[in-house]
């Protein structure tokens, strides 16, 4: 199925590695142009080199999404190069989890700025460019713990839940501008985060992920693949999903049924 993404312009935060980079690979194969935002300039350069083979435009902006000026720099680049945005993917963030009593104010604040305020700012600052598109879409990448909060999942689960509320609210507020706002709730999907987790234990990545899938009782019996996330994300960004807004899809192998 042609997703009709050729020539579309998509900004991805957290785009230098992991799920964000995986999505970028899928988008450029579909003919889209991408702007990757991340903190590590070297990783961004490497990502751009890999993606350039697809023949679409790949832009990078080193930026910390917790900083409003950095975010604006990325959006200014999109305006200068493209004149509009067809898609905004709020993907920046990593899992943090601890008990309520042991989570410090600084940890709450850091997670708030990264996982919620950055989404709010990114959407607000992108609105002028999104309104110039004939099919604009926003995608918030969250976690299944937006709906199901296990033990010692703070502060991450709290701000993921707030991100879900933001998605629902904005889908109504921005409907008059034809801006669709959806979310993906991610379970255990292969990413750099899980590679680091395996390395910390000295285990083989595949073995470590298989053990995690068994421990978490994932019904499909395995950790998800990056491209499985990317395929769903690309669909939600495309005009093939033109009647979907305010939707939150679980990409979790059925995990939310047993959490």
Q: Which strand order spans the largest sheet, edge to edge or round the barrel?
A: 3-2-1-4-6-8-9
What do we call the CATH topology? Rossmann fold
What is the strand tally?
A: 9
The appropriate CATH architecture is 3-Layer(aba) Sandwich
- Provide a count of the helices: 8
Can you say what the CATH homologous superfamily is?
Answer: NAD(P)-binding Rossmann-like Domain
| Proportion of residues in β-strands | 15-25%
CA gyration radius, whole angstroms: 17 Å
Q: Which CATH class is shown?
A: Alpha Beta
Give the biggest sheet: 7 strands, parallel
Overall pLDDT metric = 92
Q: Could you give the distance between the termini?
A: 33 Å
List low-confidence stretches. Answer: none
Q: What is the H/E string? A: EHEHEHEEHEEHEHHHE
> What is the number of independent domains?
1
Task: Please characterize this protein's 3D structure.
- It is a single chain.
- The model has no long low-confidence stretch (mean pLDDT 92).
- α1 links the parallel β1 and β2.
- α1 packs across α8 and α3 packs parallel to α4.
- The chain is globular, with a radius of gyration of 17 Å.
- Helix content is 44%, strand content 16%.
- The chain has one domain: 3-Layer(aba) Sandwich (Rossmann fold).
- The strands form 2 sheets. The protein has a 7-stranded parallel sheet with strand order 3-2-1-4-6-8-9, with helices on both faces.
- The two termini are 33 Å apart.
- The protein is an alpha/beta fold.
List the helices and strands and how they pair.
Layout: E1 9-13, H1 18-29, E2 33-38, H2 41-51, E3 58-62, H3 68-81, E4 87-90, E5 97-98, H4 105-130, E6 137-143, E7 154-155, H5 156-173, E8 180-186, H6 192-201, H7 205-215, H8 226-237, E9 248-251
Helix pairs in contact: 1-8, 3-4, 4-5
Keywords: Oxidoreductase
Family: Belongs to the short-chain dehydrogenases/reductases (SDR) family.
Protein name: NAD(P)-dependent dehydrogenase (Short-subunit alcohol dehydrogenase family)
């Amino acid at each position: 199925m042609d997703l009709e993404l050729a020539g579309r312009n998509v900004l991805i935060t957290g785009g230098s590695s992991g799920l964000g980079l995986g999505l970028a690979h899928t988008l450029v194969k579909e003919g889209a142009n991408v702007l990757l935002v991340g903190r590590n300039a070297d990783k961004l350069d490497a990502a751009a080199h890999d993606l350039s083979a697809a023949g679409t435009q790949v832009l990078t902006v080193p930026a910390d999404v917790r900083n409003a000026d950095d975010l604006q720099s990325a959006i200014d680049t999109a305006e200068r190069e493209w004149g509009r945005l067809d898609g905004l993917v709020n993907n920046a963030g990593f899992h943090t989890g601890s008990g309520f009593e042991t989570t410090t104010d600084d940890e709450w604040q850091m997670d708030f700025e990264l996982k919620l305020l950055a989404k709010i700012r990114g959407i607000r600052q992108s609105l002028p460019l999104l309104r110039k598109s004939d099919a604009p879409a926003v995608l918030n990448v969250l976690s299944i713990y937006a709906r199901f909060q296990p033990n010692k999942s703070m502060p991450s689960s709290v701000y993921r839940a707030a991100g879900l509320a933001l998605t629902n609210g904005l889908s109504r507020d921005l409907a008059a501008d034809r801006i669709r706002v959806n979310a993906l709730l991610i379970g255990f999907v292969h990413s750099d985060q899980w590679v680091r987790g395996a390395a910390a234990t000295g285990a083989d990545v595949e073995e470590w992920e298989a053990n995690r899938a068994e421990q978490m009782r994932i019904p499909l019996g395995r950790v998800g693949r990056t491209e499985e996330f990317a395929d769903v994300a690309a669909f939600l960004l495309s005009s093939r999903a033109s009647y979907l807004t305010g939707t939150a899809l679980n990409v979790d192998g059925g995990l939310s049924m047993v959490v």
